[in-house]
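Internal QA ticket QA-208
Title: Verify multi-chain structure generation after dependency bump
Assignee: T.L.

Test input:
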Amino acid sequence: MIEGLKQALCKLPGVGPRTAQRMAFHLLERDREGARHIAEALTSALQNITNCTRCNNFSEQELCPICASARRKAEQLCVVESPADLEAIEKAGVYQGMYFVLMGRLSPLDGVGPDDLRLEQLEQRLAEGGVQELILATNLTVEGEATAHYIGELAQKRGVEVTRIAQGVPVGGELEYIDRNTLAHAISGRHKL
Amino acid sequence: MRVDREIGYILHTRNYRETSLIVEVFARRHGRLGLIAKGAKRQKSGMVGILNSFHPLLLSWSGRGELATLTNAESVSAYDRLAGDTLYCAFYLNELLMRLLHRHDAHETLFDSYQEALATLRTQGAGEPVLRIFEKRLLQELGYALVLDHDVERAQSIDPEALYQYVPERGPIQANGKQRHGIEVHGTSLLDLDREELENPRSRRETKRLMRAVLARHLGDKPLQSRLLLQQVFKLRADDLSPE
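Actual output:
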């Protein structure tokens, strides 16, 4: 049974057999109450959390609080790769529009193609009308760029304005310490003062 | 073993633990190899904006065994981003290399061809000839060079006007109405591919079919995802949205 627990813990990202053993022994020896809490939280999360039917983000209701909110701007739709990215933008606190979570990115070398992302759902959302600006907030990796291009094309075909998040020097950044690629983006993407 | 500032490209990266990456590299003098980039995703590592595919890097690593540790990466040229179709094509090159190269086999000539193909994609945009030429050179480098200049059955030079059946494991054989399990291709197409000049649309069409069949023998059953992606891109463009 302990073996089973160790193997189960190995499913967590970044946890190998050694760490799993440490976690298992810790929970059984020192923190049985905590272990019970984890078990209950997991069971309840699995039972109650699904994906929002509109944006794919994790949600307890059919519609997540953002999609259900009347105060968010429905004409702006921001496309992100993962719920963690959505969370990051929400924490930034400036964006008032809606989201669409792809749950991945185009990555041919990992075997992820357009059919593995929820693009049909996105197309349907665009076809419904109402979205005036599609903000592509996929990562600035080559896979994120490929994803942005693909979705950009998809949206432009429907006459939706497409924008891409800006890239460049981080706030508080000193040029001397910034890698040359980022700096090159910052220079080419400069704007009028 | 310590290796200092070797020129190479990143073929693929995978997340590893919280902040690290496993980087698959194609280095000129070392071939394909896997490196662990510890803490590479941390802002302070200085690697965040550097470890991108399709850009030449000076890589340093140390350690032995299957996965050595990447100790430093420097960009050698100004950042020149690929976009759209050229990016999809570049993924195709990387996928071919990932699927067909073995780790730790140096392929300097192929490395130069790869570099040349990326440069062509940058200057001329996406196009089939650059992919065909790279595929041809890749097979050659791996020891599966295509026979493109003579009929393997009659030992005669290729006649540009004649029609051939290309039998993947052998080479071109003049058709003569006989049924063979080969790919139908004109003499001109074979010669164009041999000379690496694929302006003729028929040559492009035929060599595409030819290369696909020949590559399939080496790639096995798993389709190339980047090829599927390109097909889907073209389908997306062809789909008519104009309603009712």
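Spot checks passed. The longest helix of chain A spans residues 32-48.
Status: verified.
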